[in-house]
Amino acid sequence: MQALKKVRTVRLPLWVALSTLLALAAAPSRADADAHAGKPAEPYDYANPMIGTGGEGHTYPGATVPFGLVQLSPDTSNRIFKGNFTECCYAWAAGYRYEDPVILGFSHTHFSGTGHSDFGDLLIMPTTGALHLQAGNDTEPGYRSHYSHADEVAQPGYYAVGLKDYGIRAEMSASTRVGVHRYTFPQSDQAHIVIDLTHAIYNTEDKVLWSSLRVVDNQTITGYRMTNGWAKFKPIYFAIKFSRPFDSFGMVREDTHRYGRMPRSKEEAIAANEISTAPEQQGRALKAYVDFKTTAGEQVVLKVGISYVSPDGALKNLAAEVPDFDFDRVRAEAKQKWRTELNKFDVRGTPENMSMFYTSLYHSVLGPVVYNDVDGNYRGLDQNIHHSDHPTYTIFSLWDTYRALHPLFTYIETDKVADMITSMLEHYQQSPVHMLPIWAFHGNETGTMIGYHAVSVIADAYVKGLRGFDAELAYQAVTDTANRRDFAGLDSYIDRGYVAYDLQNEASSKTAEYAYDDFAIAQFAKALGKQADYEHYLKRSQNYRNVFDAKVGFMRGRMSDGSWETPFDPELAQKHSAFTEGSSMQYSWYVPHDVAKLIELMGGKQQFVKRLDQLFDTEVSKDKVQEQEDISGLIGQYVQGNEPSHHIAYLYDYAGQPWRTQERIHQVMQTMYFSRPDGLPGNDDIGQMSAWYIFSAMGFYPVAPNDLTYEIGTPRVDHATMKLSGGKQFTMTAHHLSEKNFYVDHVLLNGKPLDRSYIEHKDIAAGGTLEFFMRATPNKSWASGAASLPPSMSDAQH
Amino acid sequence: MQALKKVRTVRLPLWVALSTLLALAAAPSRADADAHAGKPAEPYDYANPMIGTGGEGHTYPGATVPFGLVQLSPDTSNRIFKGNFTECCYAWAAGYRYEDPVILGFSHTHFSGTGHSDFGDLLIMPTTGALHLQAGNDTEPGYRSHYSHADEVAQPGYYAVGLKDYGIRAEMSASTRVGVHRYTFPQSDQAHIVIDLTHAIYNTEDKVLWSSLRVVDNQTITGYRMTNGWAKFKPIYFAIKFSRPFDSFGMVREDTHRYGRMPRSKEEAIAANEISTAPEQQGRALKAYVDFKTTAGEQVVLKVGISYVSPDGALKNLAAEVPDFDFDRVRAEAKQKWRTELNKFDVRGTPENMSMFYTSLYHSVLGPVVYNDVDGNYRGLDQNIHHSDHPTYTIFSLWDTYRALHPLFTYIETDKVADMITSMLEHYQQSPVHMLPIWAFHGNETGTMIGYHAVSVIADAYVKGLRGFDAELAYQAVTDTANRRDFAGLDSYIDRGYVAYDLQNEASSKTAEYAYDDFAIAQFAKALGKQADYEHYLKRSQNYRNVFDAKVGFMRGRMSDGSWETPFDPELAQKHSAFTEGSSMQYSWYVPHDVAKLIELMGGKQQFVKRLDQLFDTEVSKDKVQEQEDISGLIGQYVQGNEPSHHIAYLYDYAGQPWRTQERIHQVMQTMYFSRPDGLPGNDDIGQMSAWYIFSAMGFYPVAPNDLTYEIGTPRVDHATMKLSGGKQFTMTAHHLSEKNFYVDHVLLNGKPLDRSYIEHKDIAAGGTLEFFMRATPNKSWASGAASLPPSMSDAQH
Fold first, then answer.
1. Min Cα–Cα distance to chain B from A229, Å
2. A226/B226 touch (CB, cutoff 8 Å), yes or no
3. Which range (A682-696, A763-777, B623-637) has the least confidence?
4. Which of A671, B207, B442, B749 is the most exposed place for a label (fewest CB within 10 A)?
């Protein structure tokens, strides 16, 4: 999703584009040479955290482990909100932009690929020479440093960069809850490590509500800060241990508001600052530094435990996960975790496509993240400290990730799915509105985006046979969520069968998405043997029809009196319209669970295909996209860069023209995914953009999770074996695949001809083989018959 | 103590003075008649929470139990700090002032008798008619109400008042962690209960860092707020249960700073407000209301659990302490707790003096307060949640209370002393500076005032034979505290033998108080058999001499080069002087542990007495008291209203002129303690002012806790039996006592003549009788010999 962002285009300067090409031309060359000399490349070598750090990918290059709580990564901006998030923040949602020439420091928490953002907690920066506690800028000196991409290494679980201004090599790695820094200093009488608690992503003047720093001893600093950002209230606690004692330390408090004084300007506050050597400071704007005298090449290791419970929680996490200061061991362990993760696929293809595939897999497991401390404690949505015996997960960007990421998890992260669902159920139990998460992270519900897609994730897992969570509680949660009348037009939806546009913005996209979610509930009810509920929710899943104006052939805003939004322009994409981050042009295709009926509503298969072509082939006039989210990755009005389009190219299949799906999918993968920093078509959105690629590159995609089918597109790699969590393997082979041979001639499933344009969940789950035979021209006879409609469509034909 | 306050005099308007006299003329008539009809008066009936609510007593009239975490009391001011705490706050340190004509509401936390303050958390107010969410003022309507003292009842554990503007009777009572309200409404279609989380004592525009309100169901609201005030960071959590469902509710958020918007003025924020009926709101400025339709006389009971751990902690406290809505039972239980407490003394005297005595006893057990939840959890100084199996105490106003309050506890609260000390040791263990509390409350160290008097409290308990705490840990804590070199001039004190005035403000008062505290450590060391330490600290206890300029006969600021502060005027009392809340005139007497040497330094007994008389008999020119704390309760330059003077009147004893002590003490008790709202000579300071009265009214006072002696003054009541915690009794009888007969003729201790002006701790601890025979003229021969120096003085004569 790309909430709250504005139209914005980032053009890379030429030097960046060139250095990018040089650095990344042939994956896996960007991996540092030492680690791989003489060894054959493995999946780990193909995953490149730099991909997505330019353009609008919004990924970060730093160190993390799969589903890790800590994302230790460089930040390159400290812009502050001055009334418009686009100007200060949107492009820096992951803290780092590839084209930025300076690094401010390394902070411990980041989102991977979001539009709106938060985090950037606990910025740490090593420096030498005169002490600076301001980041600095082009005219004022500061702790920031220039760097060069030639000096930069980004690998899964490892990040390194040379800080040119200081001659310091900074390396970092991580375990689940601990970030580890290793700084190699030059000889210096004035080496410093600066800690800036005022730095944040999507920062505002008043984001930090309160913070604290405590120098426990000359190798330990603990603290916390509480922020009000996208997360309304997020306290983070930390414990920093230094591998050697620091010689001295100081803290400053740049608060503009201090108890017992009248407010002053930030400039006055900074000017009035005095360094304190008291071992504890509290305030709204704290910074600290420690000093060393270093010999040439001296290394200082910092390990930083993070907790959302307490300083003690952070210390416990630190002690449990990184008991010593052996940076290389932490790095090796992180690498091993990544190898285990990335080896879940055995892929062969061009280096470029292998890099895209494994990087997509890398990006797919950066969220949700483990949230509870090693002792099982975590801070709930209700500000109580709860205990879970299982890993508790957070970061649920569900409007994005219900589509392909969570379905992917049902195969390769089966062991984690139940814990993720249980975490969502705990959220439900702690929720003031008794709802499952919408867009939730770290004990907060942001309520961002639309739908109640947690139900899709839960139902999808259940109907696929995954267990290990309380199914009855889950069903209660799902139906409570779907019937919370005061939520985003649900009362109108329940009473009228649609969300009335005079009552709610984005009313028709809400109606369409609620309808899909209701289809998911119906499947869940059916699996639980709740026949009446099944019928009830299946009926509700038809509600999308109430906002589809058959006369004009489009979804359209509909008023509470039943009349249609007037005037109506399906291409108009603007704020407060009847649609979310797009226009009716895109949203009219949002009937993933009932495409057969949609074809009928659109006037039959021929008209349906014509309309699809219209979407892909017609550009929209710029003046129709006002005040609207960035629509990146465009083919006509198809928007690969944003989620509502993700299933659309697969819809040709349903009209009996799978070769058209093949053309479009090939075009998308060929022209929008590149193994370079700006190589993603849009925000990666906690892995949804990447999960789309993983499925699509294997040749199939879950248009409607919960209908248990995957529409066939066109593979992008020659071979891909997916190693299912249970031990089985599903292998895709694409014979004769090339940039020209992207059309499917025929398909064998487990050696038998497949004459339909979809496969079923059970085919994958059972393990087996899927063989594509590719060619350079369309085979219009393959899978063009009526049988191409998946069986679940009959469900929806109610 | 009276830190941070300025010279200020409150004159009661005539009508208040009159109504006071009417209401309180003859204690115990202010007790509500029903409860006592026909019964003989008991101690409970004499304790009057209204005493101290006028003048500068800074006590509150509301409902609490002994050592209770909740103090549910009316607040009469919502003044906001605009650069000067004197103007907004000092007079309203307890939230309520007797002369104020309106009540804003009832908040749940208050200090008893402090100068600086905090708290006023969770203001609740019942109203009828048009809903107002602003308190209002003389021109703008609001939720506040007029009231009359005639309609007001204040008893230990019970407070009631008629809210004239609404015809509502508001009653409240409390258990340790729960406040209970009972509102009797008139018939109304528009009855409301307003919750204002922006209200606070010593309020500032930005005091509330963050807050939250959650309507759990139509009888339950939970929430929290975090404030930055005198306590740097204090989160309070609460849970409110209503005895009947409310019909509707709403919340507003008057934040001037909101994420994603530019700051606006408070007026704009209020104007822009919309009532939300979502069940949860978070922000910096939250208010909520609930609505009822009430019948005439309908009662709504609210019970409010408080926790400093979590919302669940508040719910647990609520469930454990007040499981139902039986207000009368809660009130009866509170009364019973108070009877048990007040019955620890059996006193006979004039109604006025009995009222003063029992009210003093009431005020003496309002702090420290129990801090942990019923499950033992509490939030420590390190922001971790700790667990204690014992009751954890907080509110340590030690500069005040080490003098007489804690010594009093060693007799009548023996069971609690060990828990208080253990709580101080936990503070030490959680402290960033590894120190015992200075002025600490609710997980915060304010660092207010001087000295490290926790050592006196701990040592006093130990040398009196009290056990039940970890003595070795306590000794470690005591000596760590006394050797924290970066604390308030301790480095200079340790290195030079005094705190240099060019390095530290209030340097000579610090030196003198550290010296006394070191005397306490010496006694503790001796009791532990640490002979070398005993000698070391006894030597340190002589450091006061280093700031006593024998040439001028006064304590005086001394520079780091050894030279004296010049020019020097012993009467000058100003900020940043060498003395704390006073001048050298008062502080030169601060050698409680070595009075014999002080006499010598002053030039012998005659000169010593002359100097004492000079203090009492000479007024200071007003222009010498600049920028200085309020000095109330004056006799010449003797200041009964502030602690540094508390022992001075007893010093005549040491010079062999106990009749002069008798005169002065009689004068103080007769002219400065009155059974009326403005009846206290100064801030009650968490009971120190009252504990002074309790000891003095019994005829003796601990000039130097830890020397195990009590100087004899003159009793104020005819009879006082103190029931020691262990079961023994110590009985004081004053024969022939009257306003004229305040001189001591002779004294019998356990029936035997006592020819010295002190008694010893062991005399009290063993139980026994002390008989005074009073007369109208001085008996200059009684206790005038050298034997009047207590034995511990020989200790100090080192």
1. 6
2. yes
3. B623-637
4. A671
